[in-house]
Amino acid sequence: MERKTVNVVAAMIVDNGRLLICRRPEGKALAGMWEFAGGKIEPGETPEQALVRECHEELDITIEPQSLFAQVEYDYPAMHLSMQVYTAQILSGTPKRLEHMEMKWVSPDQLGEFTFCPADREILDKIAAERRN
Fold it and tell me: Which residues contact 52 (CB under 8 A, 6 or more apart)?
């Protein structure tokens, strides 16, 4: 049986050298794990449009996607996740926790203190590698 592919986007929102991370809500897959804000790309949307929409829905902010930071392919038991991760900056608004159980601004050095969704491991590794260079 072929696994369903789910196409998602995530935002690495940076402010004063810190990244915004969000904790998945109870009742959702991977509840309690940390992630970068984002979600599914709807039919007819570009990844950038999906990212702007998702950040508005989840955080009540308007963002500007900047550059593609990573393309992640990850196999979960029930699906294949194809995730595009963009760096982004906030154009307007202050992040509010509309969907997540928790939200934090953290320095890149603090990312290892949080339990992220498995698909995000590659993103964290790339952030760490870029900081070493």
Answer: 62, 63, 65
8 A C-beta contact, residue 93 and residue 60: yes
- Residue with token string 């789910």: 6
Contacts of 127 (CB under 8 A, 6+ apart): 12, 108, 111
Q: Where are the alpha helices (DSSP H) in the chain?
A: 47-59, 121-132
CATH class of 4-132: alpha beta
Residue by residue, pLDDT tens for the chain (133 residues) are: 578 999 999 999 999 999 999 999 999 889 999 999 999 999 999 999 999 999 999 999 999 999 999 999 999 998 999 999 999 999 999 999 999 999 999 999 999 999 999 999 999 999 999 888 7
Report the predicted TM-score, pTM, of the whole model to 2 decimal places.
0.92
